């Protein structure tokens, strides 16, 4: 007697509307493009006020929110977003991570808390992971050298590409910083 075994269809990532809230324009655009390629409808915002308006109108299924925004705090926004749609899955991103802010983000209803610069694939995995499950760890995480380089680049941009000011804020010698900036990004 032959048994017919049906193959299970591959698990598809649930897509829907994702609200991307970040005041870092290059990062926001890169993340938005990645979500669009994954089949999400993307609405990007630069701050809290714009995000509130878009969320109230669209009621997105997902949100990616930077912790520090020009016009407010992303953790405070999580509660407001979850009040608009209780099942909204929100991931907090921050370049200034610490344990206290991670706990605050999770307590307000965020499903995950990721350090910037976060890999877009890791963000999608966090948003679409089954409830109660942690996403798989990244197969190819950024190297420590790459994380350091990304942080230096971010501070450099925030200092309007002023080498002296960036070196002062990073507590490093100006010439050392110039050598780092002159090199290509590590893998």
Describe the protein's architecture and organization:
This protein has 187 residues and is of the alpha/beta class. It folds into two domains: 17-128, 3-Layer(aba) Sandwich (Rossmann fold); 144-182, Homeodomain-like (Arc Repressor Mutant, subunit A, Orthogonal Bundle), CATH 1.10.10.60. The chain contains eight helices and seven strands. The chain has helices at 25-37, 48-58, 74-84, 99-107, 120-128, 144-158, 163-170, 174-182, and strands at residues 17-21, 41-45, 62-66, 68-69, 72-73, 89-94, 112-115. The strands form two sheets. The chain has a five-stranded parallel beta sheet, with helices on both faces. The radius of gyration is 19 Å and the shape is globular. The N and C termini lie far apart (55 Å). One of its GO terms (cellular component) is protein-DNA complex. This is Two-component system response regulator RegA. Residues 17-131 form the Response regulatory domain. One of its GO terms (molecular function) is transcription cis-regulatory region binding.
């Amino acid at each position: 007697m032959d048994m017919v075994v049906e193959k299970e269809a591959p698990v598809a990532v649930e897509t829907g509307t994702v609200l991307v809230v970040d005041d870092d324009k290059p990062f926001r655009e890169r993340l938005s493009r990645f979500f669009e390629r994954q089949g999400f409808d993307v609405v990007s915002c630069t701050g809290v006020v714009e995000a509130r308006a878009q969320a109230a109108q669209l009621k997105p299924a997902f949100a990616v929110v930077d912790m520090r925004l020009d016009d407010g705090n992303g953790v405070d926004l999580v509660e407001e977003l979850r009040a608009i749609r209780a099942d909204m899955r929100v991931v907090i991103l921050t370049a200034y991570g610490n344990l206290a802010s991670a706990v605050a983000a999770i307590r307000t209803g965020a499903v995950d808390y990721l350090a910037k610069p976060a890999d877009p694939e890791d963000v999608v995995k966090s948003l679409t992971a089954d409830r109660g499950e942690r996403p798989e760890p990244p197969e190819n995480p950024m190297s420590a050298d790459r994380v350091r380089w990304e942080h230096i680049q971010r501070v450099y941009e925030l200092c309007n590409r002023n080498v002296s000011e960036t070196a002062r804020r990073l507590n490093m010698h100006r010439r050392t910083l110039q050598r780092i900036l002159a090199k290509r990004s590590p893998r």
